[in-house]
Amino acid sequence: MYSEKVMDHFSNPRNVGEIENASGVGTVGNAKCGDIMRIYLDINDNGIIQDVKFKTFGCGAAVATSSMATELVKGKNIQEALEVTNKAVMDALDGLPAVKVHCSLLAEEAIHAALWDYATKNNIVINGLEKPKTDISEGEEEEIY
Ligand code: FES
After folding, report:
1. What pLDDT score was predicted for residue 141?
2. According to the model, what pLDDT value does residue 134 have?
3. Is the pLDDT of residue 47 over 70?
4. Which one of 49, 51, 114, 140 is CB 3.0 to 4.6 Å from 39, fit for a cystine?
5. Number of H helices, E strands in the chain
6. Long-range contact list for 72-80, CB < 8 A, 24+ apart?
7. Distances from the Cα of 55 to the Cαs of 16, 38, 63, 92, in angstroms?
8. C-alpha 139: how far from its chain's center?
9. Does residue 109 have its Cβ closer than 6 Å to ligand 1?
10. Whole-prediction pTM value?
11. What residues contact 124, with CB distance under 8 A and at least 6 apart?
């Protein structure tokens, strides 16, 4: 049911932890399953994400997608990081079962929330970044659960 890459990132997640004095921190949850993810970004003066860490209190798919998402944004600039969608994360993991697709949204939204925090702290506007939700289950269709 899960790809080898999902199992690898679940069993051996990359970039787990916290960054002290992070440039941006984002926390999002899904009230329906109760899972929570927090992403820490360390962004240098050139707008490059030089380090990223995460903590996920959630299911295996949430852990694997967080791990892959951190790998995908590390070393990227802010605009490139915005393009790391949940679909890009799923593709990099060779897919997720349909019932687990919503788990990958936590990673995308947590990165956006951390970028939003960074932009707010530095008084800048990031083109294409909208205010993230803190609960990603808001407005979702009941039947996907
Ligand atoms: Fe909640 Fe996967 S079941 S994030």
Report:
1. 52
2. 85
3. yes
4. 114
5. 5, 3
6. 73/41, 73/49, 73/111, 74/15, 74/49, 74/50, 75/48, 75/49, 75/50, 76/48, 76/49, 77/46, 77/47, 77/48, 77/49, 78/43, 78/47, 78/49, 78/115, 78/118, 78/126, 79/126, 79/127, 79/128
7. 6, 5, 8, 20
8. 19
9. no
10. 0.92
11. none
Residue 94 scores a pLDDT above 70? yes
Nearest atom in ligand 1 to the alpha carbon of residue 37 is 4
Q: What's the rounded mean pLDDT across residues 101-118?
A: 94
DSSP assignments along 17-36, one per residue: S--TT-SEEEEEEETTTTEE
Pairing of strands 49-57, 24-30: unpaired
Q: How far is the CA of 2 from the centre of ligand 1 (A)?
A: 14
H-assigned helices in 50-130: 60-73, 78-82, 86-92, 101-122
Task: Kindly report, residue by residue over 3-15, the tens digit of the pLDDT.
Answer: 999 999 999 999 9
For residue 120, the model assigns a pLDDT of 96
Atom of ligand 1 nearest to the CA of 59: 2
CB 26 within 8 A of CB 111: yes
